[in-house]
Amino acid sequence: MDARLDYFADPTAGKALKHFMSAGKILKESSVPAATQELIALRISQINGCAVCIDMHTKEAAAAGESAVRLHLVSAWREATVFTGAERAALELAEEGTRVADAAGGVSDEAWARAAEHYDEQQLTALVVMICFMNAANRLNIIAQQPAGDYEVGQFH
C-alpha cells in the first residue's frame, strides 16, 4: 500500500510539516509525564482510526517501558484498573477533545475539573495543545492513507 501523497516531497507541505513536527517536539518537553503523552496520543489515534499513529505511539510507549497490558487496555481505559487518576483524567480530556462533533458542547466542565485536579495550568495548556496536535497529525495521515507497520522507534526524533 502506498500513501496518496508524499508531504515531504512537496515544497510547501514540506516546509509546513517541518514547523508542525517542531511543535510536536516542543510539546514532548512539557512537564506532562511522557507516559501520559503516549497514552493520549495512542487513544486519540485509536478513536480517529489512524493506523500509522497507532503503530508509532504503541512502539514509542513500549520502548519507553510501557507495559503491554496498559497499551492493550488504553481503548477500554474506563474499565481498566491499571491507569492512575491523572492518566484517566488526561484520557477523558483527550477523548472529549477528540470527539467534539459527538459531544454537544465539546469538553464537559466535569472532565475539565477532573483534569484540573491533577494538572496545573501549564500542563493543562500542554495537554490541550497535544490533543489538537494529535488530531491534526491523524487527519494528515488518514487523508493521505499513510501505511502503518514499518515505524521504527525514534524515526522522527
From TrEMBL:
Domain Carboxymuconolactone decarboxylase-like per the UniProt entry, residue ranges: 20-96
Domain of life: Bacteria
InterPro entries the record matches: AhpD-like, AhpD_core, CMD-like
NCBIfam families, A to Z: ahpD_dom
PANTHER family in UniProt: 4-CARBOXYMUCONOLACTONE DECARBOXYLASE FAMILY PROTEIN (AFU_ORTHOLOGUE AFUA_6G11590), BLL7811 PROTEIN
Protein name: Carboxymuconolactone decarboxylase family protein
Species whose genome carries this gene: Streptomyces smyrnaeus
Classification of source organism: Bacteria, Bacillati, Actinomycetota, Actinomycetes, Kitasatosporales
